[in-house]
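Open question from group meeting: does this chain pack into something compact, or does most of it stay loose? Before anyone orders reagents, we agreed to write out a predicted structure and look at it together. Recording both the input and the output here so the notebook holds the full record.
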Amino acid sequence: MDNKPMLVVMLTCDDQTVSNAYEIFDKCKDTKAEYWGFKEKPLPLEEMKKLYAYMKACGKKTALEVVEYTEEECLEGARMAIECGVDLLMGTVFFDSVMQLCKEHDLKYCPFVGELKERPTVMDGSVEKMIADAKEYISKGAYGIDLLGYRYTGDAYKLIDKFVASVDAPVCVAGSINSYERLDEIKRINPASFTIGSAFFNKCFGSDFSTQIDTVCSYMEQ
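Structure tokens returned:
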């Protein structure tokens, strides 16, 4: 995820994996997107494993984003990521137990920061504390940070800009990137990666799912 921000396509809408995720990926597997993922709900685990296996067979990098806030739920999400064989666990509130599990299974971990609630997630909290927490998590072994920048109740652009500049690790800006204006902001700030899910289902970048993916990838390469 070096140089320009990398798109991670999320087969999710409103923080839920869509029921036809396998079919959508099958139609879009030849697009420019290299990174793909979805959420821990509501697909059955066996369907998740089947889809991730197909993604890997197509040469894709894979991520599971877990939108849970208690330690046991976060641990369960990490276990799912391990069983699915994904490259990256995104989300969860940081817990030492989750970090330890990821270390034991050589799983890259990018936890959330901030004060989180609801689903789709809303994020609150001070920018300074988010940065301090991120540095602590990275010192404990986290690969990077899953930043719900545009879900922030304050000034999202200022948060993302300061956070990315202050955190010396890969930052993925996740959630609510639904306009060219926000793509331009991501370009300027230059995080390692960013996710788009609901915006593709809401046709924010065109009428066809696969065309939207290539449109965004090409736009970010300009």
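Observations to bring back to the group:
Residues 6-221 form a domain with the TIM Barrel fold (CATH 3.20.20.70).
The longest helix spans residues 71-84.
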